[in-house]
Amino acid sequence: MAATTSPTPGPASGPIPGPSPAPGSVPVRPPSRPWYRQLYFWVLTAIVCGILTGWLRPDIGVGLEPVGTTFVSAIKVLITPIVFLTVVRGIGGVDSLRRVGRVGLTVPTGYSCNLDGSSVYLSLAAVYIAQATDTPLSLGQQLGLLAVMILTSKGSGGVTGAGFIALAATLSSVGTVPAAGIMLIFGIDKFMSECRALTNLVGNSVATLLVARWEGALDTARVNRVLRTGVPEPAANPEPEPTPPPGHSGHDTGSAPAPAKT
């Protein structure tokens, strides 16, 4: 009798099995962290410490100004890699080339053209400078200023502080409002830049939800679950291709040979 040997099991090539949530189950909200470990607490603490330092010891505050400027600049530099990685990860989870084309066209266009914060800033700043310098503007001059702002504001979302440069270029090219008046708002442009960035982010988020609802790609139930529990759910992966049986090379196109007659 020939001894039969079973093949030695090798290392698993597939993903490591682990506990997976049951289909249709609601994810459990993780326990909340204590208040002293929240990000907003440390941000408010840093703001209060900065105000007290500038009030009680102005000399120390002046010495720490380069550190604060470097930190803010480093934070703003991280925006572009975060956007790039987010887009790459989103495209990696898309199983249709048509949807990839939509993402590749919509994201850069919206990030460059859908700048609500920059648009509000340019219009209000121009009108404020005109009123502060006692410069009358007729309806035609206001429309001409608006037409130039539509062109100069595009692409300002990718550069830090580009909204102020776009305002200076607009006032210099039009000539109806004194360009020297931008020094009236130069001191607060650092804070206005943060407000512009936040408003642009909110505008792009709302536009994303609106387009997704229009295209029928918005899962309202999933959005409600994520907002209610605070736990992000990964996108569903496409169904894997069926694995060929062992011994099948995948190159045989004809039928199997008939068994030999004895």
How would you describe this protein?
The chain has helices spanning 39-56, 58-63, 65-77, 79-92, 97-113, 116-132, 139-152, 162-174, 189-215, 220-229. The relative contact order is 0.08. It has ten helices and no strands. It starts with 38 loop residues before the first helix and ends in a 33-residue tail after the last helix. With 262 residues, it is mainly α. It has a domain at 115-233.
Shape: flat
Oligomer: single chain
Query: Count of helices?
Result: 10
* Mean of all residue-level pLDDT scores: 71
State the share of residues found in helices, binned by percent.
Answer: 55-70%
Major beta sheet summary: none
Total beta strands? 0
What is the rounded Rg?
A: 29 Å
Task: Name its key features.
membrane; disordered N terminus; fumarate transmembrane transporter activity; 10 helices; Na-dicarboxylate_symporter_CS; malate:proton symporter activity; mainly alpha; 0% strand; 262 residues
Outline:
The protein is mainly alpha-helical and 262 residues long. The chain has ten helices and no strands.
Q: SSE layout and pairings?
A:
Blueprint: H1 39-56, H2 58-63, H3 65-77, H4 79-92, H5 97-113, H6 116-132, H7 139-152, H8 162-174, H9 189-215, H10 220-229
